[in-house]
Amino acid sequence: MGCFQSIEEAKFAETGFSYTLSLINGKYKMTILYCLFEFEVVRFNELKRYISTISYKTLSSSLKELEADGLVVRTEYPQIPPKVEYRLSERGTSLIPILDALCEWGDRHRDDGPTCAASNK
């Protein structure tokens, strides 16, 4: 349990849970992180094709936020056409056990069988 005697003393915004959610909150951030874990180094258009329902604008802003939070590393190569790759940072990689636990929970509670990739690595 938490450090507080009652809910009146507690402030959700001050919890580790709240902080973690602030980093991965968003419709596609966990999917992006999981994709980068699975495929290690990925280019923008590869991510867009992998997450077909995401818009270019949402993917771009999600990647910028993940990079600003230190979860994703962006590497730009000076060439024409421009080449940009994304990978998990060490900090981002440390989130994978949490994402994997979510996947395992889903596998145990869904009807059509397991699909977790990270547990196979």
From TrEMBL:
Does the entry feature the keyword Cell division, yes or no? no
Database matches in SUPFAM superfamilies: Winged helix' DNA-binding domain
Alphabetically ordered keywords of this record: DNA-binding, Transcription, Transcription regulation
The residue ranges of the HTH hxlR-type domain are: 13-114
Claim: Transcription is one of the keywords in the record = yes
Query: Which GO MF terms does the UniProt record name?
Result: DNA binding
Q: Which domain of life is it from?
A: Bacteria
Q: In its UniProt entry, what is this protein called? A: Helix-turn-helix transcriptional regulator
